[in-house]
């Protein structure tokens, strides 16, 4: 079914990971890969048994950004780049941001340009110590895309977002952690075991509540305080009507570990 990515399931099918599988090009993005990533999220977020999704890379890199040959293979016109953005990149950004399931990036190596943003548009990123991030768009005379001009200022503030965008400087995983760009960094030799501990936790978490959290967090930057408080009330009511909430309360009263089912 997939040519450019590989899908693996873990934890009795609760977790699905899409591995970018073009290591010879350092997992550079092309139209087929972008389409398949969209299809992956679209298909797996709708499966009831799936509780968490993740994106990672095969080989030495997470993703080296747009495959320039893929662009040059088409007849360039004034709107060709915009068409690629509108047809392939932008739908994927929205699909990840709006998915009701948690989507985590496992950054196993360099993440450059659109590859860096593919990692950073996920709900949070976990990286190896040897990984780095670069907004390398400026190196070929382009602007950050894949949600870069939206997410970077929100993650970093205007000053640092502009600095990274204007210079394309490489940011190590440890520095990215200090900046608040990513959530966790683990030594390369411990990356798989440590990251999978987090993924296992998410795969057994109250999934519907996490989806509601995503909705609330995404609206916070555009809402007034009053509007956000109203939204919290609405979403909290929805959360309180789930079976997971009932299970959480019962487990607390019975002094046991809750068994959530994402229902």
Secondary structure layout:
Elements: E1 5-10, E2 15-20, H1 31-44, E3 52-57, H2 68-72, H3 80-98, E4 103-107, E5 111-112, H4 114-120, E6 124-128, E7 132-134, H5 148-156, H6 158-167, E8 170-172, H7 173-179, E9 184-186, H8 191-203, H9 207-220, H10 225-240, H11 243-253
Parallel strand pairs: 2-3, 3-4, 4-6, 5-7, 6-9
Antiparallel strand pairs: 1-2, 7-8
Helix pairs in contact: 1-3, 5-6, 9-10
Features:
single chain, Enoyl-CoA hydratase, 263 residues, 6-stranded mixed sheet, Enoyl-CoA_hydra_C, 3-stranded mixed sheet, Enoyl-CoA_hyd/isom_CS, catalytic activity, Enoyl-CoA_hydra/iso, alpha/beta
Give a structural overview:
The protein is α/β, with parallel strands linked by helices. The protein contains eleven helices and nine strands. It has a six-stranded mixed sheet, sandwiched between helices. A three-stranded mixed sheet has the order 5-7-8. A hairpin with a 4-residue loop joins strand 1 and strand 2. Helix 1 packs parallel to helix 3, helix 5 packs across helix 6 and helix 9 packs antiparallel against helix 10.
